[in-house]
Every structure is written in C-alpha cells, then in structure tokens.
Design goal:
oxidoreductase activity, acting on paired donors, with incorporation or reduction of molecular oxygen; Cytochrome p450; iron ion binding; Cytochrome P450; binds protoporphyrin IX containing FE; 10% strand; Cyt_P450_CS
C-alpha cells in the first residue's frame, strides 16, 4: 500500500470569475494565494500556480512543466504554425538561439537604440499635433510607437503601416485567447496571417541574398525551415507590439496615480530602468502563461498528474508579499528584482532588453522632457482590459 496520491487533490476555486478578472484580477489573485500555491480553477480548466515560489519552480523544471501541448492549440491555430514558445528544448533552443544575438543588450544599444530614438521623436510629434483636448496616449503614441519599433526589429519594409502591425498583433492575441472558438476571431487571425505571409513572400528571398540585423533575417541565417521562420515571425508580432504598448501606458498611468513618486523620478532621483521594472511587477502585461504537466509530478508538496493544464500566474507571483513587501503598493524606490513579468527559465522573454531600452531609455524620458505637464485627462476615463494579457486600451491624457 502506498500513500502517493494518483488524482488531483488541491483546493478548488469554483468562485474564480474570468469576467471580473478582466476588470481587475488582483483581488481574486490574492484570494487564490490565500488558498495555497496550487489551486484548481475549473471554470478555466486550469490548475493555477499562484505564488512566486511555485511559478519559479515550474519555470525551472521545463521538462516537466512543458510548453508543448497536443490539446491546447489556440496559439498554433492563431499564428498558423507552432512557434518556439510552444516547444520544449532541444527544438525550442534551436529557434531561440537564432534570435538571441540581435536582441542582446549590446546589439540593442548598437543597432536598435538609434531607431527607437527616431521613432519616439516622430510619434511625440504626432501626439503634439493631436493636442491636449482629445489625445489618447495609447492610440496616439504607445500603439504606433510599439508597432514602428517592431516593424524595424523584424526588418519589415518601410511601407508596412503601423495600423497594420497593430491590427495583426491584436488579432493574434485575440486568437491565442480564443478558448470558446469564436469564428469571427479566427477569421481576423487568418486574415492577418495571409497579410503577413504576403509580406514575407517578398521579404524572405531578399533576406537570403542580403542578410541584415533583423529578427527575420537571423531566423533565416541559421537555416531553419521557412515554415518555422514564419511561425516565429508571427509569434514576435503577437507579443512584440502588444506588451510594450501596454508598458508605456501603464508607466504613465502609474506615475500619474502617484504624483509624489513622479516628481522624484522627474527630478532624476530614480532611474527610468527601475521605474520600468517596478511597473512590470506591479501591473504585469502578461498575467498568466500556460504549461502542461508531462509526467506525474509534485510541486510545492502537491501532486499533479500527467496531462494537467497548468496556468503560471505571473501577475499573482509578482504580488507575493513573501518576496515583495507591501506588494500591492507601487513603489519606484523598491528593488523589483526577481519579478516574473518576463517569465523565467528557458522561455524568458527574448525581447526584454529591447523593450526596456525602447521604453526606459527613449519613450518615457523623451515624452516627459517634451511634454512635462502630461497627466490623465480629468474628464475622460482610462479603460483596462484582460487578465491573461492585460493593459490599458484607452488612456485619455492632457497637458
Ligand atoms: C514589456 C514588454 C514585454 C513583456 C512584458 C513580455 C513578456 C513575455 C513573457 C512573460 C514571455 C514568456 C512566455 C512564456 O513563458 O510562456 C515572453 C516570451 C517571448 N517574448 Fe516577450 N515580452 C515583451 C516584449 C517583447 C518584445 C519587444 C519582443 C520581440 C522583439 C518579445 C519577444 C518574445 C519572444 C520571441 C518570446 C518567446 C521566447 C521563448 O519561447 O524562448 N517580447 N515575453
């Protein structure tokens, strides 16, 4: 006789409500953590890992907490192929190592920084033209800037419009979250795939003869199949625009909600890099990432059978008070080191240095230099949306 359990026996949060999490997930995350590090949420068919220790442990056991699934296929369906983020090593590593060289800090500074700076100048000009009466920081600055930066990083032709990049990214993200199989969401993702593939039909042959520093070129240079190159370009479109856009608006919103801290930052007493990390911790653009248990295992003293769908609650881990004191408080003076907003382990965000450079070295410092009085518009409210991918969809501002 053995005491080893063979079925899932964990606290159940039958009250977990995705609809109210869309408005504000943090109160429910707190309740989940109070139940324990491993909690079943039947309504989303997932076992959540809620604490920093649980998420970090799963991230560092990727052979057990697998990114490969034969059943959870919304990302593969949305992007029209299986990208590195839905593979395990060694096939994941072959694709990931192709893009690392052009996204490391040195390449970011040498190659991408000057372009990020030029793009910021252009879109601050646009924001000033829209004017303080009806400016929306997301529509008029964050979204087009993040889109243009990504067009450059991917090496897409100059005639690709920022509106197209934004639409592609948004439709892929909607597809990745399309658990209810809404046909209209698939239609938009398919349309985006067709448009991106048409760009790649022209771009890939050119990059074969004239390689450059772009992510697309790096994927080609290591000899990956065209199918894999395309899947990873689509992956980069899905994550490389949406999250940086949200980080820009989250940062301005967080500083506006804490004017005393904003004054300290603008006086140069805290560097923008630390503000970026604290904002990523406090309002994480990616709230949850999925994994599947490959073989029967135990985590944080809890048995999980093979095949369990797991959700790593990055945003909840980032509010864990055993790691971050007074974790619900935005505090630019704390060290947010160790936060999990970019994941951890082998799938840790490939674009984190590019995002940090674009936002903390260029977008935010320049925005406050050129428009020092920037603040939330008192007569128009911001809109937040999402808990798996979470951000501000409209941020009315004035100055
Ligand atoms: C602030 C902005 C960003 C945030 C918060 C963010 C967040 C994340 C997270 C949490 C993951 C891991 C997902 C998982 O483990 O399932 C990830 C992976 C990834 N991100 Fe980002 N990301 C950001 C910006 C970017 C940018 C700008 C790019 C590209 C230029 C990018 C490219 C990628 C890629 C390619 C992966 C997959 C890595 C792999 O599977 O090894 N991200 N990102």
């Amino acid at each position: 006789m053995t005491n080893t359990p063979t079925t899932l026996e964990v606290p159940v949060a039958e009250w977990f409500d995705p609809q109210s999490a869309m408005r504000d997930p943090y109160p429910q995350f707190e309740r989940l953590r109070a139940l324990g590090p491993v909690v079943n949420a039947p309504v989303v068919n997932r076992v959540f890992l809620t604490t920093h220790a649980a998420v970090a442990e799963a991230e560092h056991r990727p052979e057990i907490f697998s990114s490969y699934s034969e059943t959870n296929l919304t990302m593969v369906r949305s992007l029209g192929g299986r990208p590195m983020l839905r593979k395990d090593d060694p096939s994941h590593a072959a694709e990931r190592s192709a893009i690392n060289p052009t996204l490391r800090p040195r390449a970011v500074t040498q190659v991408w920084s000057p372009r990020f700076e030029a793009n910021v100048e252009r879109w601050i000009g646009h924001l000033l033209e829209v004017g303080p009466a009806d400016a929306d920081l997301n529509r008029d600055f964050a979204a087009p800037l993040a889109s243009q930066n990504l067009i450059d990083l991917l090496g897409f032709p100059a005639d690709v419009a920022v509106e197209d990049m934004r639409r592609w990214s948004t439709s892929y993200i909607a597809g990745i979250g399309n658990l209810l199989d809404d046909p209209e969401i698939w239609r938009r993702a398919d349309q985006s795939q067709a448009e991106v593939n048409a760009v790649l039909d022209e771009l890939l042959p050119r990059l074969r003869t004239e390689p450059n520093e772009s992510i697309t070129s790096h994927l080609l240079q290591v000899g990956l199949s065209e199918e894999i190159v395309r899947a990873n370009v689509q992956l980069t479109i899905s994550g490389g625009m949406n999250e940086p856009q949200h980080m820009i608006t989250n940062l301005v919103w967080a500083l506006s909600m804490h004017p005393d801290q904003r004054a300290t930052v603008l006086a140069g007493e805290v560097n923008w890099g630390d503000v970026f990390e604290e904002t990523a911790r406090w309002q994480s653009p990616i709230g949850m990432v999925p994994r599947e248990v490959a073989i029967d295992t135990e985590i944080q003293g809890t048995f999980l059978p093979a095949g369990t769908n797991v959700g790593l609650l990055l945003a909840s881990a980032n509010r864990d008070t055993s790691i971050f004191s007074d974790a619900d408080r935005f505090d630019v003076h704390r060290t947010a080191r160790g936060h999990l907003a970019f994941g951890s382990g082998v799938h840790m965000c490939a674009g984190r240095w590019a995002a940090k450079d674009a936002i903390a070295e260029h977008a935010l410092p320049r925005l406050y230099e050129r428009i020092p009085g920037i603040d939330l518009a008192p007569d128009r409210s911001p809109s937040w949306d999402g808990w798996v991918f979470r951000g501000i969809t409209e941020l009315p501002i004035t100055w």
